[in-house]
Amino acid sequence: MRFPPIIGRGRKTPVQDLQELSALLAVAEAGSFTAAAERMGRDASVLSRRVAALEQSLGVRLLTRTTRRVSLTEAGAAYCRRIQPLLEELASAGREASEHAARPQGLVRVSLPVTFGRHWVAPLVPRFLLEHPEIRLELRFSDRVVDLVADGFDLAIRVAARPLRDSSLTLRRIAGYRNMLVAAPSYLAVAGVPQAPEELARHACLGFTGHADYPDWVLARGEARHRLRPAFRLATDLSEMALQAAVEGAGITLTPDWLAGPGLRDGRLAEILPGWGGPGQGGVYAVLPPGHLVPARTRLFVEAVTKAIRAGWR
Q1: Beta-bridge partners for 179
Q2: What dihedral angle (degrees, nearest 10) is formed by the CA atoms of 70, 76, 82, 84?
Q3: Which of 161, 90, 91, 106 is nearest to 138 (CA)?
Q4: HTH lysR-type domain: which residues (predicted)?
Q5: Same domain for 288 and 200?
Q6: Which pLDDT score, from 0 to 100, does residue 1 have?
Q7: Which residue has the higher pLDDT, 256 or 291?
Q8: CB of 37 within 8 A of CB of 47?
Q9: Which member of 12, 79, 171, 253 lies 3.0 to 4.6 Å from 246 by CB, making a disulfide possible if both were Cys?
Q10: Residue 9, CA distances (Å) to 2, 48, 58, 80 in order
Q11: Which of these three, 84, 102, 120, is where a domain ends?
Q12: Residue 13: which region, alpha, beta or left (left: phi > 0; alpha: psi -120 to 50)?
């Protein structure tokens, strides 16, 4: 939305217009540039220039200047009567906006990847709603990469195996993760524990088709790289299914540590080939529409997600 200039002439910005109007009212009330400058914490010459610019823009003299006092002309007095209520209304609107920001409210529309959203975001939502009763959430779970602006989202949480780069969006990296090989102790007791990536070829492997390198597994340890193409006993586009099959002893899967963490902690899973994992460090990102001003309600939700992840990360 484009707003017309307050004064109507020239190419000044609304901020410049307001500064000039405020200067005029301050000088008219104080009766001199010096007294007005003291009240506003400005230099008298600055106020003089602003009033002069306003007079030039309007094409009329607003103040009569003498060596001792400054007073309004007839046109200046009439002009001040009209603009004073407007500036008071603007000041009131500013206070109202600040109070609104201090008490965040309104709707936050969030796009979430299905598995990550279910494991890491859904559990924090009830408490967030209780702590912020005036904020409403609309959460859409989908692995589709949405267009934040076109689809009307305030925020997207994205999980990426490689660094995200999009100059048109605001990206905030919340946390890092890595892909790791895991299997159930019951499977390893029968099939044995592989000691090198090459040995995975003779093991039952469980694949997630959403991996960037599928149908290959690309493993890294330091500068070393190993690429293999397992004969998957199971391939699925649901990472939770591949992990659950591994928990039940069906084979080995390559999965992110944020998903394998609970099974590793309670002993249902064991890490295979420690030190070997997906190449590079993946990341969890908060993706925001272009611009620098993030509404308080959106910022609070990003902070809640960030806090939950960093507190519970493996």
Answers
A1: 256
A2: -20
A3: 106
A4: 16-73
A5: no
A6: 38
A7: 256
A8: yes
A9: 253
A10: 16, 19, 7, 18
A11: 102
A12: beta
